[in-house]
Batch of 2 targets.
Target 1
Amino acid sequence: MGEDGTATTSVTERLSTVLGERFERVRRTLGSPLRTTRTAVVVGRLLGAAFVICFLTGVYSHLLQDPLPWLPLAVGPEHLYGWTQGTHVVVGSLLVPLLLAKLWVVFPKLFTWPAIRSLPHLLERVSLAVLVATALMVPITGILNTLQWYPWVFSFRRTHFALSWVLIGALAVHIAVHLPLIARQWRADAEEKTSAEDGRDISRRGFLWGVGGASALFGVAAAAHTATPIGPFSLKEPRSRIGSPQDLPVNRSARQADVTPASVDATWLLTLGTGATALALSRTDLEALPQHSEVLPMSCVEGWTVDATWTGVRLRDLLALVSAPKDATVRFRSLQRRGAFGATTMPAAYAQDPRTLVALRLNGEELDLDHGYPARVIAPGRPGALQTKWLTSIQVA
Ligand SMILES: Nc1nc2c(c(=O)[nH]1)N[C@H]1C(S)=C(S)[C@@H](COP(=O)(O)O)O[C@H]1N2
Ligand SMILES: [Mo]
């Protein structure tokens, strides 16, 4: 290369100087007394805690839906899942303003020159890009799911779950890299409690109150969605549009699932089988068996929970009829011909729980067709998606 090489170097150098100056100017223009490390750390702490809460409650929800054979979960209190999933949705919503605030505060850092200083620095930048992308994607897909709006082709559940692992990994790297800075800020916070405030502190306080207020608003909206009765201010409303009989939201109506009244007429039979024995029970047969009532919540993964009184036959009584082993996993099939949740699996601990019913009645009335007539599953502490409607068979694995 010789002379050419020297010339190239100087062009690169000059370009670097020019870009460096440009970046510096942009950074100064974007500068604000609010865009400080301190604000970034204060918001970051809350945001990090929120992501961790969502991750843990999310993993719990997935473990209930896809149990690991080596990690059998005990049947908890019946409202446990309603609480963990309600927390997941509320915290996942209120972190959105925190996330936007954090991105706004650190935005000028994008204009730091040189953009990449070393190989470790390059890796850190890449993991940060991954963190920002997933931190946006995970809450956005989650919130759209609670609104039952799917402007994408991929499976929501699998994508949301996979991205959350990437997010938590990138978050761990981010925290590890910034640990000295975070620790320094924590110590400075403790010291500053004793010193007087200046003007900068007051405007920072205003900013943090604003972010906190927006965050609280998101949280309250999500909590209303989770806890308020069906009505114009409840986000359970999208479901009640299709009628919501018997004071319980309907996620997929019989019509949407292609379950026709003819398929559930007097000829309907529930098959009950193990490898060796099979029984077919009519609705009259089921009504003739001992009936039990339980107040159990319907807790949807979308965050809402509604309690109802369910009446029907204990699943364990049915399983005993075909001499099913007590440790058997149970597989349910629905008459449903379209969409997800037509077949579900229940671990033995739930199948043997005395509260688990094959429900025939709801809140003192015969099950509505939209609630799974002639018979549906209701078990304590399970995600709503697993409370299979329009049962047609119960198989012991
Ligand atoms: N067969 C079948 N069962 C189902 C569903 C379904 O789509 N098909 N939806 C589930 C979901 S996601 C929830 S939250 C509850 C909703 O309760 P519902 O019976 O009030 O609709 O039913 C569950 N049972
Ligand atoms: Mo659901």
Target 2
Amino acid sequence: MPDTTIAMNLKQVRQEIDEACHRFGRDPSSVNLLAVSKTKPASLVRQAIEARQYHFGENYLQEAQEKIQAINEANVHWHYIGAIQSNKTRAIAAGFDWVHTVSTPKVGRRLAEQRPADLPPLKILIQVNISGEASKAGIAPADTQVLVDHLIHLPNLELRGLMAIPAPQPGEAGQRASFAALRRLRDDIKIRFGSDLPVFDDLSMGMSGDMVAAIAEGATWLRIGTAIFGSRN
Ligand SMILES: *Cc1c(COP(=O)(O)O)cnc(C)c1O
């Protein structure tokens, strides 16, 4: 593996993931690493690819489109994890493999209509405002099942699970409480919808500062930026 800073950071993050999996009895292959490359140049994304990282998360559409075009590799997968304005859904549906931040029926409908026919279904996650913060994006936990009911009937989408950005907590116990709430919500939805929702398993939760707690509570996608690419100014 090339000896770049990014490669060394990735090695360190993977080691921490393996250790946490060991500590909490998780199979490391069930925990996926999403490298959040927002604000970082394509050259650093290429270094990560060299170090066998193939999933990248982006928040800003125009910046992401430029990077996706510059990289243009079939085995690299792009995840949209930013806020979604309705006028951006067409480009998101065409350019990305996953969207983690669906929280309204309208955005779901538009992504379904606008997903190009020659591409596989767009994998989507519902963003839940798990800490109930007034300022945060995402649907309220209590309204999530109704949104699932809207989204499962749409074509060209594959509803894969839930995503959250909990309010910051100082310690592991507090962090785990929020992540556990998201996991329970996923479990409730899986039971309620049964075979209508065959692959509703993903939990996109945990960032550089709280990934151990997220692994403890069942994260399947860790969204890690700073620990891989360094701080953003
Ligand atoms: C920026 C961002 C991340 C990565 O955060 P770090 O603290 O840098 O690891 C994860 N998820 C979302 C939604 C983000 O916007």
